[in-house]
Design brief:
MetI-like_sf; membrane; MetI-like fold; flat; 2 strands; disordered C terminus; 2 domains; cell membrane; mainly alpha
């Protein structure tokens, strides 16, 4: 309970910091706050500008404006986009389902690929591990924009296996793979390293002495000990996946929050930008808090208060 309370407090502190930065970005930038909120919309009347000033309390002290801003966020009031002529909350809600669908598919592909590749290449000879490691490094190093174009060129325009655009399940495969490859490339290396470390520990030797085969030791014992560092990194990568959706959704002409954010940045629609930033910060903090709560499930020894496992690997004594 103490560990969960500490993690929750840390998550709320991070979220508060992110939301405070969005407030400062709006109020301490060049020009007036009203101009920043209106953006490129030149058809806003003086009456509307006065209403914006009243709604945001721009005549009040800065500390009052800050408390009012936090209060609006607590009510899920992200402001109004005067370029889209609709509340920011509604604009994000309309684009959120396709993005969550894409991220969910990409997460599933990344997790399955990580487990399959790491388990299949653990303690394998170099002629097997070498090409796999090269593909992992290439998947991480290749810019996501080029990876998405490469997938389109080969599997859509060349082989005609998947449609380049559309709304069906088949059209989701290539963008999900483009999002999943960098994540799987990192996680599979970490998991394989953790598995090889775990197989050298005394508990693995004991399991072998009891007659259990190498594959059984790997799947029933080593995998559980190797997962916590992977889960740590998984939470960080998953929370930052929204950045990749901006690129992938644009390349594959998919609707979503990424495209909404990109259009808002291009059109200087500051309320939408700040709304997406606030939503992303909340999602990132929530995901990492859930990951922290998973540690005691993966390893009962962590139910006692203690630090989260380091990413490079988990050393087990006995």
């Amino acid at each position: 309970m103490r560990r969960a309370s500490a993690r929750l407090g840390h998550a709320l502190l991070v979220l508060w910091g992110a939301l405070t930065l969005t407030f400062l970005a709006l109020h301490l930038g060049r020009g007036s706050v009203v101009d920043a909120i209106v953006g490129n919309n030149t058809q806003v009347t003086d009456e509307v500008r006065d209403r914006i000033a009243r709604e945001h309390g721009l005549g009040e002290p800065l500390w009052w404006q800050y408390l009012s801003y936090l209060g609006r966020l607590l009510r899920a009031d992200l402001g109004t986009s005067y370029q889209l002529n609709m509340p920011v909350r509604d604009a994000i809600a309309a684009q959120l389902p396709p993005t969550l669908q894409l991220m969910g598919a990409a997460t599933g592909i990344a997790v399955l690929t990580t487990l399959a590749v790491a388990v299949a290449t653990t303690r394998r000879p170099s002629w097997i591990r070498g090409p796999v490691t090269l593909l992992e490094v290439a998947g991480v190093a290749l810019p996501q924009f080029w990876l998405a174009i490469l997938l389109l060129t080969v599997f859509s325009f060349g082989l005609h296996w998947f449609p380049a655009f559309g709304d069906g399940p088949a059209s989701l495969v290539l963008p999900a793979v483009a999002l999943a490859v960098p994540m799987a490339g990192v996680l599979s290396q970490i998991l394989r390293d953790g598995l090889e470390r775990a197989l050298e520990q005394p508990f693995a030797t004991t399991a072998r002495a009891r007659g259990q085969g190498e594959r059984g030791v790997l799947l029933r014992h080593a995998l559980r000990h190797a997962l916590p560092p992977v889960v740590t990194l998984f939470g960080l990568l998953l929370g930052g996946m929204i950045g990749g959706t901006v690129v992938v959704e644009r390349v594959f002409s998919r609707p979503g929050v990424g495209v909404l954010l990109l259009n808002a940045v291009t059109g200087k629609d500051i309320p939408v930008v700040l709304g997406v930033v606030a939503l992303t910060a909340a999602g990132y903090v929530t995901l990492n808090a859930l990951v922290d709560l998973l540690y005691p499930v993966l390893d009962p020894r962590l139910r006692a208060a203690g630090p989260a496992p380091a990413v490079p690997g988990l050393r087990v004594e006995g």
